[in-house]
Amino acid sequence: MNNRVFTVGSLISGRLIVKHPAPERTERKIIKAEGIIVEQNGKRMEIYPVKGKLLDAALSQGKPIQYKCRKGTCGQCTIKVVNAPGLSYPNEQEKKKLKNEITNGYRLACQAEIL
Ligand code: FES
């Protein structure tokens, strides 16, 4: 058995070559947040996409989206969608309530579906 004792002097560069194995290359995966970004009353919120109604996902994540009827009639849940991967197309209730605002990115959170 080799019981070599290293002293400070033995570790000075040039006296002892300590070979360290090359560090393994680790691949870093950059996981980009794919959240749905919406605005309501000037407040921007990011909602983690969970299949179902956008309003339900937002409320379950503690996002304070205002709403009232949940039927698509009052318009209280109107939001501006900034970024929405995987969001359904506007349904008839939204088209009826929001009219041309849909083309500007507005949706009813109680009607929009996360697919
Ligand atoms: S809560 Fe009334 S339209 Fe969405």
TrEMBL record:
Q: Which residues does the UniProt record annotate as the domain 2Fe-2S ferredoxin-type?
A: 34-115
CDD domains, sorted: fer2
Q: Which residues form a coiled coil?
A: none
Q: Which domain of life is it from?
A: Bacteria
For this protein, the record's InterPro entries field holds: 2Fe-2S_ferredoxin-like_sf, 2Fe-2S_ferredoxin-type, 2Fe2S_fd_BS, Beta-grasp_dom_sf
Q: What is this protein called?
A: 2Fe-2S iron-sulfur cluster-binding protein
Q: What is the lineage of its organism?
A: Bacteria, Bacillati, Bacillota, Bacilli, Bacillales
